[in-house]
């Protein structure tokens, strides 16, 4: 199986200064390595503050590692080089509402990444926008819509459209389903599985919900206080968790996001 993304000995340390300028060094991510194969899904689980979002930010380029490197298809990703990274790795966020601009039509928002990162002309850009809207279950006419004219589910589809419009190989989803109600959440899970099938996208999927991870992921890493404490296939880790921390996490005893666990399984296509 070919490795697409490799996170190698990555760390992230924050230095905080208090009122009397005393420095406190905080290791948000301790030496961490893992890899992701093409078309596969790796879930990152962990309690609040375990370093999941920091790891997502390091992979997407929103934060720079203190040490270590990230490789895409064997090529080292250079911190700060957004052009290099944005063609391969894109992010979807928890709050689709906040990630869309209320002052721009969806068409304009989808065109932006194409203007900055592709050589497509106006006709080709329009074709790509319509094709992408259809891929996420929206219509070409949605180009003309402002975000506030769309339902919550449509907004999440729109933010996925924005993430896939450059045809990335990896999508990083940070609690992307946490605020959706259970039937919309199930529809978006089905959409993500469908896009993976058709486009071969690999996902890094951050979630505190065992149920969502079970449906979406092939492999899982479990984070605790900045370190990976357990990893393996979802089947192995879920059936035979080795750490008591993982056992508690899988019983949803360590999360403060109760709604995150509810998936309306009647809507799901595959277990
Ligand atoms: N910019 C920052 N400056 C200082 N500390 C930070 C910064 N960003 C994150 N941290 C700290 O790093 C730790 C890990 O945070 P992170 O957001 O990655 O955890 P998380 O597992 O995603 O948590 P949650 O599920 O609550 O989002 C936390 O203790 C957090 O306070």
From TrEMBL:
GO BP annotations listed: transmembrane transport
Protein name: Peptide ABC transporter ATP-binding protein
Keywords: ATP-binding, Cell inner membrane, Cell membrane, Membrane, Nucleotide-binding, Transport
Keyword Transmembrane helix set for record: no
Topological relation to the membrane, as annotated: Peripheral membrane protein
Domain ABC transporter residue range list: 5-250
Family: Belongs to the ABC transporter superfamily.
Location in or out of the cell: Cell inner membrane
GO CC annotation terms, alphabetical: plasma membrane
Lineage summary: Bacteria, Pseudomonadati, Pseudomonadota, Gammaproteobacteria, Alteromonadales
């Amino acid at each position: 199986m070919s490795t697409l993304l490799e996170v190698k000995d990555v760390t992230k340390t924050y230095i905080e200064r208090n009122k009397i300028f005393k420095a406190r060094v905080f290791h948000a991510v301790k030496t961490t390595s893992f890899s992701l194969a093409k078309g596969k899904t790796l879930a990152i689980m962990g309690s609040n503050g375990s370093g999941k979002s920091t790891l997502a930010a390091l992979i997407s380029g929103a934060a720079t590692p203190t040490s270590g490197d990230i490789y895409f298809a064997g090529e080292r990703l250079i911190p700060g080089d957004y052009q290099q990274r944005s063609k391969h790795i894109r992010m979807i966020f928890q709050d689709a509402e906040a990630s869309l601009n209320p002052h721009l039509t969806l068409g304009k928002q989808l065109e932006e990444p194409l203007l900055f990162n592709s050589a497509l002309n106006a006709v080709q850009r329009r074709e790509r926008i319509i094709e992408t809207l259809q891929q996420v279950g929206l219509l070409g006419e949605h180009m003309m819509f402002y975000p506030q004219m769309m339902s919550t589910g449509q907004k999440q589809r729109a933010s996925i459209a924005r993430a896939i419009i450059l045809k990335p190989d990896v999508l990083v989803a940070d609690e992307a389903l946490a605020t959706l109600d259970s039937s919309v959440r199930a529809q978006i899970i089905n959409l993500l599985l469908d896009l993976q099938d058709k486009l071969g996208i690999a996902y890094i999927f951050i979630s505190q919900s065992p149920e969502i991870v079970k449906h979406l992921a092939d492999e899982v890493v479990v984070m605790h206080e900045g370190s990976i404490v357990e990893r393996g296939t979802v089947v192995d880790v879920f059936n035979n968790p080795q750490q008591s921390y993982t056992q508690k996490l899988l019983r949803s005893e360590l999360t403060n996001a109760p709604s995150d666990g509810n998936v309306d399984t009647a809507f799901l296509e595959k277990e």
